[in-house]
Amino acid sequence: MSRRARLVLTTLVAVVLVVVxxxxxxxxxWFGQQEDLDRSQAELRKLERGNATLGxxxxxxxxxxxxxxQARQQYGFRLPGEESYTVPPAKPPEVDLPAxxxxxxxxxxxxxxxxxQ
Length: 117
Fold this sequence. Notes:
Elements: H1 3-61, H2 64-75, H3 103-116
């Protein structure tokens, strides 16, 4: 290979390396940063929506009537002079079938069905 051909080849390689270093690598980095920025902005929008929802909930729960309702429902508080009554849930119906055929096979399914109601 002649000296001139080596010089041209070396110059060409140097130019390609400079182009790659100046154009390609920064461009690739920029696109990667754009993707990160898009993901971050989507997450920010999601968090802002969540904050807005929580802000509305705070406003709703800070109202005096809401505080009173929560105290009544969650803690059983009553105003002076009010009476509170608690009605326990009804007992599940008892199923007591005879222990003879075919009732011996029906006892458990009927008892489970009665307990669901």
